[in-house]
Design brief:
The chain is built from nine helices and seven strands; from the N terminus they run αβαβββαβααβααααβ. With 228 residues, it is of the alpha/beta class. Strand 1, helix 2 and strand 2 form a beta-alpha-beta unit. Helix 7 runs antiparallel to helix 8. The chain is globular.
Amino acid sequence: MQDSSKQVVLEFIKNLKPSSILDAPCGNGWLAKNLNGTIEIDGIDRYGEEISKYRKWKRFDLDDGLPTCLGTYDCIVSCEGLEHLGNPELFLRTAYEHLNPSGTLLITTPNTWYPQAKLQYLLRGFFPSFPSLMGKMSKGDHMHIIPWSYPQLYLFLNLNSFNEICLHHEPLSEPKHFYEKILGLPQFFYCRRKFMRSASNEERRFWEKAGSKESIYGRHLIVTAVKY
């Protein structure tokens, strides 16, 4: 995950002011290191070694969801993890269970909706960073196996009872090349038509975000959702 995306995540957490966080997967512990001990934070990861910056650290396979022995948290952060999971719905369902009322789930993941990614899919049949894994398939390897877009994330979060699903702006939300602006116009106008014909406020909010630059042009997604 790029430093610019990390700064957006840190700023969001700073404004949210949670008293407790679960970092899953926690990777090299960058989140705990940057929070400087100001928030109680636990970490989970299948790889690596225990990191002292976490109050508690546990080795666990998140394809099995979050472990039942955990408590509840004001915020669960999952940076660059969902694309590695073969059972993302179980992870999201158990994340909901381990959030306090009004708790927030924050997810970051590569976006496969940006124009160059769709062009590469047309030419190769595979999205960037989600190549054919033939000859490299091994259970437990650190592989990108499920590509995500904002609509797909919205669907999974909605099915697991999350509300206030929000897509956040970051530097990677901007189109990288001029031609991408042109290639993204048909999708923009399609989402705009769906927005204008929406029958409810929920539909309008969805199509507004689906047609935003963060969704259409962004190479990366930062999405939050709330447990009611």
